[in-house]
Design brief:
- Helix 1 crosses helix 3, helix 17 packs across helix 25 and helix 17 crosses helix 26.
- It is globular, with a radius of gyration of 37 Å.
- Strands 2-3-8-5-7-6 form a 6-stranded mixed beta barrel.
- It contains 27 helices and 21 strands.
């Protein structure tokens, strides 16, 4: 046997031959360890020459930085040496390095992508508005509507705002020599709108005060995309006259590319305060926005507007009773009161994904630490302090997380781009057209912060563990058990438990969100949507000013459309199912009188005969409308089942009378002639709010857009061209919105739940994959460490099923604990999502059972592969395993 003295002699021989950087073979490494143990047992310090020789000749390729530190180089140079050593360490373990970078890139990438979206919605808002964070949006407590006189009072009395403007969305019919008449989205704006948001046209001029005076010549400013599509970016468009809603209108400007406000409209026109607009009770789809003065807080501005609202309520009790200003920020106004909750939940979900990735890496680092225990012990024996070891290992972790962050940046860019494409697809929200999803300095700072934090999070536990090694025992047994003892196993098991608990919480949250979307998507709408074609028409007032002309047009259209082969019936309605309809105050005949400010409201839909037959809805009692329900006939209405059950429980609604109010003006008493099954209108997710009555179109042929619904015997999409030809045969200048299948149009109502449900599902799938890989890696490493033990067990008679049981018990025990903790935590976390859930409980048992089964199956698969490997161990080979 080689003595320690002979080992040192061989070291000096290598040193003199200048083979200082050559890795030792296993025999020479053993001599080094033996010599070191001898000095440790004797309590002696290593001689300086031998210490330097060990540093340069270590079989584990020790860094030269300790040598440099003995010569008094600065700490910064030591960090540089740590980085060099970390690079060499990563190159020696390419498989581990690639796996670690991939997991970190995925976790950091999805976090940065979600933060980019959240940043765009909650912090940046409209991309073209100067100092958007100082803009507030104001409506009334009744919804979106503000009267023009209220706006004038707000603007005159509010001291917290630099300025205010009012906007009003409309549809216009544009016709000129460049194309057929078509519907376009326009916005009526007050003259100072663009100035207030810091924008001006790139061609032509802005609106001026004279443009909004009654009797002024009509003018318009075009959206850049509209200018490009219809006019091919012709600069001579400025000053050209086009026909809008039958009136000659001069184009005075074109806005910048990508500019939209307040929605994705095609053009802007001045809001002219006509006598009808100046009525205080006239509250159309208008809202007000204002720029808060520098130095004034949002809370102060809200308080001042509430004071003004109460002042107007006292001054105009008939028109302003209950109409207090509601002041909101961008995301509150455009997305809803739960915007912060929705995006915060997504942010939390991807945070869980990153935590699972960190737990995975911490486990892998612990496993790798067992292999590196001799290296670290030798460094400690040579004089490296605890902080020195921790610093070296943390730098390695930070380098891995830095590379993960670099590739995560590209994953985030791809993910954000994919989200934009999905959000701009048909059936999704318009506001994704106007948001700025560029990865700005906030995203960069966030990505750097989570990259550094992640490196510290998954690297700290293994670094601390390795810095506490028992040098003597580690060098004595060659590193076996150095970090694989009881405490090391317990830490690894705790990390697996944490991964599983986080995965359960995320899967449960995704599960209830997806079930919520499915409940909305598969909700009983009360209609048969699969064979219905729909289109929007708006008869120009100039040609159809008389009610009889409008009724006659739709009668002729019905006759022509029903003659198309494959068409079963046609009807018209003011709104299609699931779309929000106008609500009116009402009272019942014989009911106790109610204060006019507290009258209940009911949703009102105007329809033609055959509406229920076309939609496939059931008439429960009475009859549908017919041609006799005209202007000269008895005022009638039809109620839905929900309304009848609410106001006449247990009674026959036929013959009951209802009176509607428009403002404070009462309408005629209308007799109920029918009761029909519930058809979803307004909020599909809240059917209990859908109390609905129907009025006959022949009695109210109003001057507004109408929706045509056609029931087909063939696929409805195949009838689009024939339907369009029949409309143009009656009026070649009549624009049309559509046609579309009803099923496609209904998708617009589901865009938010569809998108968020899909995102949560993606995050949950990533979490499940990472947790399963983490469990597999822990079990696989444990099996490799216990090869000799398994060989002994098999040598003394253990059967393959005994080995299988051993592996599965070890793997499934932390899974079971993590599952239990995760299910308990999900009950609390899902409460946060309760406001967004539709007919699903936060503790939905079906979701929790499915999540548990999926996770257990994934865990079984993660244990099965290492278990099968263990069952194939040859006892003879295993007993010789080191």
């Amino acid at each position: 046997m080689t003595t320690p003295r002979q080992a040192w002699a061989r070291l000096v021989s290598f040193f003199r031959k200048k083979e200082l950087d050559r890795e030792f073979d296993e025999e020479l490494a053993a001599h080094i360890e033996l010599a070191t143990q001898d000095h440790i047992r004797q309590g002696k310090a290593l001689p300086e020459a031998r210490r330097l020789a060990l540093l340069k000749l270590g079989g584990v390729e020790l860094s030269k930085q300790v040598h440099r530190e003995t010569r008094g180089l600065p700490w910064l140079d030591g960090i540089v040496q740590d980085i060099r050593y970390a690079v060499r360490a990563m190159r020696r373990s390419p498989g581990f390095t690639l796996a670690a970078i991939a997991m970190l890139a995925l976790g950091i990438g999805v976090n940065a992508a979600v933060f980019t979206v959240t940043n765009a919605v909650l912090f940046k808002g409209f991309s073209y508005i100067d100092r958007h964070d100082r803009i507030l949006y104001m409506t009334s407590v009744e919804g979106c509507c503000v009267s023009y006189p209220d706006f004038e009072d707000w603007r005159a009395q509010a001291k917290s705002f630099e300025g205010m403007a009012i906007v009003h969305g409309v549809q216009i019919v544009l016709s000129d020599k460049n194309g057929f008449p078509e519907y376009y989205y326009a916005t009526e704006v007050s003259a100072d709108t663009f100035k207030l948001i810091g924008q001006r046209p790139i061609l032509g001029r802005d609106f001026a005060a004279p443009d909004e005076t009654p009797g002024a010549a009509p003018v318009a400013i075009l959206n850049y995309g509209f200018w490009e599509r219809r006019y091919g970016k012709d600069p001579t468009i400025i000053g050209r006259t086009v026909r809008m809603n039958g009136a000659l209108t001069t184009v005075i400007g074109v806005m910048a590319r990508g500019f939209y406000f307040p929605q994705n409209q095609d053009l802007w026109v001045p809001l002219v305060p006509t006598p009808n607009v100046l009525r205080r009770e006239a509250r159309d789809t208008w809202f007000v926005f204002g720029r808060v003065t520098d130095g004034i807080t949002m809370e102060s501005a809200r308080a001042e507007m509430e004071t003004i609202g109460r002042r107007l309520e006292r001054a105009y009790p008939l028109t302003n009773g209950g109409f207090l200003p509601v002041v909101r920020k961008f995301h509150e106004f455009y997305i809803g009161p739960h915007a912060a909750l929705i995006y915060g939940s997504m942010w939390g979900a991807v945070g869980f994904v990153l935590l699972i990735a960190c737990a995975n890496l911490a486990n892998l680092m612990l496993a790798r630490a067992m292999v590196r225990s001799r290296e670290i012990s030798l460094r400690i024996a040579l004089g490296a302090g605890r902080w020195r070891i921790i610093r070296q290992l943390l730098i390695e972790s930070l380098m891995l997380s830095g590379l993960g962050g670099f590739f995560g940046w590209w994953i985030a860019k791809w993910g954000t781009h994919t989200y934009q494409l999905a959000a701009k697809a048909p059936g999704y929200s318009w506001f994704d057209h106007v948001l700025d999803y560029t990865m700005d300095y906030r995203v960069f700072v966030y990505l750097v912060a989570i990259s550094i934090g992640t490196g510290i999070l998954f690297g700290l536990a293994p670094a601390t563990r390795l810095s506490k090694l028992d040098v003597n025992s580690t060098l004595k047994d060659g590193g076996r058990g150095a970090t694989g003892g009881g405490r090391g196993k317990h830490l690894s098991a705790l990390l697996v438990i944490a991964e599983m608990a986080l995965a359960v919480v995320l899967l449960a949250g995704a599960g209830v969100m997806i079930r919520s979307f499915l409940n909305v998507y598969t909700a009983d709408l009360g209609v048969q949507t699969e064979k219905i074609l729909t289109a929007g028409l708006n008869l120009p007032v100039a040609r159809y000013s008389h009610a009889d002309a409008r009724v006659s047009f739709y009668d002729l259209l019905q006759t022509r459309v029903e003659a198309i082969p494959g068409v079963e019936s046609m009807a018209i309605a003011s709104y299609i199912p699931t779309w929000n309809v106008q609500r009116f105050p009402f009272e019942l005949a014989g009911a106790p009188p109610v204060d006019e400010r507290r009258r209940p409201k009911i949703s009102v839909l105007i329809i033609s005969p055959a509406y229920f037959r076309t939609l496939g809805a059931a008439v429960l009692s009475g009859r549908e409308f017919n041609e006799g329900d005209g202007v000269l006939g008895l005022p009638v209405l039809i109620v839905n089942q929900r309304f009848a059950s609410r106001y006449w429980p247990g009674e026959n609604p036929l013959g009951k009378r209802v009176r509607l109010f428009e403002g404070n003006m009462p309408g005629p008493w209308r007799t109920v002639v029918g009761a029909v099954s519930n058809i979803a209108q307004n909020d599909v997710a809240r059917p209990e709010s859908n109390f609905l009555v129907y009025l006959p179109y022949r009695q109210m042929p109003y001057e507004g857009g109408i929706n045509v619904l056609v029931r087909a015997r063939v696929p409805p999409g195949t009838l689009g061209n024939a339907f369009r030809q029949e409309v143009h045969a009656l009026d070649s200048d009549l624009p049309m919105f559509g046609p579309f299948t009803l099923a496609d149009r209904l998708l617009v109502n589901y865009w938010d739940r569809r998108l968020y449900g899909a995102l949560f599902l993606i995050f949950a799938a990533i979490a499940l994959l990472l947790a399963s890989l983490g469990l597999y890696s822990v079990i696989a490493h444990s099996v490799s460490r216990r090869t000799q033990e398994i060989g002994i067990r098999m040598a003394i008679g253990a059967a393959a099923r005994d080995v299988l049981k051993l592996i599965f018990v070890q793997g499934l025990l932390p899974v079971g604990i993590g599952l239990t903790i995760g299910l308990g935590a999900s009950l609390a976390v899902n409460r946060v999502l309760e406001s967004e859930l539709v007919q699903v409980s936060p503790s939905d048992p079906i979701t929790l059972v499915v999540v548990s089964v999926v996770l257990i199956l994934a865990a079984l698969l993660g244990c099965l592969i290492p278990a099968r490997h263990a069952m194939r161990v040859d006892p003879v080979i295993a007993l010789r395993h080191d």
